[in-house]
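Chapter summary example.
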Amino acid sequence: MLFRAMTNVHLYEQALQEAGGVPYVNLSGRGFYSRREIQDVLNYFRWLQDRGDEVARLAVLRSPFYLISDQGLYWLQRERQDMLSTAERQAYDRACSDYVYLTEQASVKSAPEVITAMLERTEYMSKIWRLPFGPQKRANMEKLLKLSWDLFARDVFSVPEQLRYIDLMSRDSKGGRAKHCSMRNMPMWSFCVLCTAPKA
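The structure predicted for these 200 residues follows.
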C-alpha cells in the first residue's frame, strides 16, 4: 500500500489488525523500533553489551523471553531467588544459561547470527505467536532480522555496532523522517507492506 505521506497510516494498521490480524510491515521506520517485541531484542542486546545494565536485564526477564512476573523481579532484585515459584526459578536458570551462551556468541559472531541464536534458544517466536496480534509481532521480528542482515552487508557487524546504529535510527524515526521503501527481496506474500510512494 503506497501513501503520499504516513500521517494517517495508523488507521490502516488498525484496520489490518481488526481484519483478522493481517500481518503488515510499516517501512517508514516511524515507531518500528519502539514496538514491544523489537525492544525485547534491543534490551537483550543492551544486557549482553553491559552485564550491569539492570534496566535491560529486568526488561528481558519480564518479557516473553522468560515471563518472570513483577513479584518475581522484586525478589530477584533482593537476591532472594528462593522466593521464586518453581516455574520462575526454572525460567531464571534458563536466562542465566542463555546469557552465558549468548555473551560468548556475541563476542565471536555477527549481530544477525546472535539474534537468530537468541530467538531459537529461547523459542521467542513461538511465544509471541500465541500473544494478541502474534502474526504481526512475528512479521516485525522477521523485518528486524532482515534489517540486521542488511546492516551486516554494509559492514555494520557486531552487536554493539548495530545497537548504536539502531539507536540513531530510532531517534531519526521519532523525528518523523520517513524513509522510502525498497521492495527488493521482500517476501510480499507473507504480509502487507505500508510505505511512502517514491517521488517522480
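To summarize the output: Residues 175-190 have pLDDT under 50 and may be disordered.
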